[in-house]
Amino acid sequence: MTTTLQKDLASHLLACEENVQDTVKVTKEMAPDLTIEEAYLVQEQLVQMKLDKGLTIVGPKMGLTSKAKLTQMNVDEPIYGYVFSNMVHDNKSEVSMKELIHPKVEAEIAFELGEDIEGPGVPAADVMRATAAFIPAVEIIDSRYKNFEFTLPDVIADNASSSKVVFGERVPNQQDLELDLLGATITINDEVKAGGAGAAVLGHPANAIAMLVNMLAKKGEKLKKGQIILSGQLLKPS
Amino acid sequence: MHAQIAKDLHQAATSRVSIPPLTATHEGLTVEDAYQIQTEFLQLKDSKETRQTGRKIGLTSKPMQQLLGVNEPDYGVLFSDMLIQNDGVVETNQTMQPKVEAEIAFVLKRNLQGPNVTAADVIEATDYLVPSIEIVDSRIKDWKITLPDTIADNASSGLYVLGNKVTAPRDVDAKSVGMVLYKNGEIVGTGVGALAMGDPATCVAWLANKLSEYGEELKAGETILSGALSAAVEAAPGDHFTAKLAHLGEVNVRFAKS
Fold this sequence. Notes:
The complex is a heterodimer of chains A (about 240) and B (about 260).
Chain A: H1 3-19, H2 36-52, E1 57-63, H3 67-73, E2 79-84, E3 88-89, E4 104-113, H4 124-130, E5 131-141, H5 152-157, E6 164-167, E7 171-172, E8 183-188, E9 191-197, H6 205-217, E10 228-233, E11 236-237
Chain B: H1 2-15, H2 22-25, H3 31-43, E1 52-58, H4 62-67, E2 74-79, E3 83-84, E4 88-90, E5 99-108, H5 119-125, E6 126-136, H6 147-152, E7 159-162, E8 178-183, E9 186-192, H7 200-212, E10 223-225, E11 233-234, E12 240-245, E13 249-255
Parallel strand pairs in B: 1-10, 3-7, 4-13
Antiparallel strand pairs in B: 1-2, 5-6, 5-10, 5-11, 6-7, 8-9, 8-12, 12-13
Helix pairs in contact in B: 1-3, 5-7
């Protein structure tokens, strides 16, 4: 796959994001044979374009971390994308629907790292040790693909559907936190609409971060101190 | 008619041979009929052998209510012969088509009589919270139930297991308690207290108020299973289930191999 095509795909997806415009999946015509590895190369181009615009990375985020999602997409590994500074909205602020194509809301635990973590071979316990704080987060995903119709390479190229994030109050890491048993609920207009527990994320949210570290290690990258990383969706719709 | 249906259910329960849906064989069966049948069905139990130990609330989740097309829960009665000790074994002859759910159980220290019982009243009247596994079961063939079917069948009650750790109701917010259900070491369900009608204590309050319509009340010492926190999971011989609930601890049960 040529760098030109990678850049073309990245530009196309970035334009869709900026113009709040949906598109048919890139594997439909633009790149029918796109592999997962190539899709991450497209994502890298997209990330670079955002960096060139002066945006900064808040941290990576994990996607497809639930068993149901993995089964639905017929894969055994989750995916990742990147959250940028301009995606973060203040807690309790308003988000304009004009900036979104077809938003969906997820509840997640974010990990704020107190140290760098570098794979491969990082166990979840190392992630817990290196974490300075946990932050409750609402992630608003907004695939650029029409009707959320995409294959795995499509969604990877599309920065894992990243769109907006709202962080709550940070909770300093304590040793006795049982993140797998941590309950989460989403209420919409005061009515409980969905709920779940930390274990919905690959058994334990730290498992997702450990997997991310080890995936990044394949590209010679690491997680950095100060990054805030979304570990994956906690909820099952009710 | 009620007496005959109650006998049919009792016969199904004792012989462990399921029967067709009551609503298929008795057209027009209402919810009111169903609760009367439930009472008659339970009166057929041998009172020398078993005693009432509490109640269970069913259909507390949105998905279950939607599935059965209803907008309120239902309830059944727990008996002493339904209790399986923590880490205990369920023998094959104790169930017909068992499914497993994890719940928060409320054990009462005071009677709760409706109407107008609130979630705060429930907390006030609760001695302790304890994690529980409910093994639901159906005397109706292949679980082909509508609302009157399950109500008449004691809200599809089977067996129940309680954990060993006791937690004061004021020490934990039941609605934010996370839950993980494991089957043979694999996660088969996750949930949170709020999935039971927004708050498990609200479910218990609902029950106290509902019972008052029949001149009944919840009694001190009774165990109330407040509602499933994730979808029921089918159990097969040899399966081992663990439910872990934040702050409340865990509860285990095993199904005999044969």
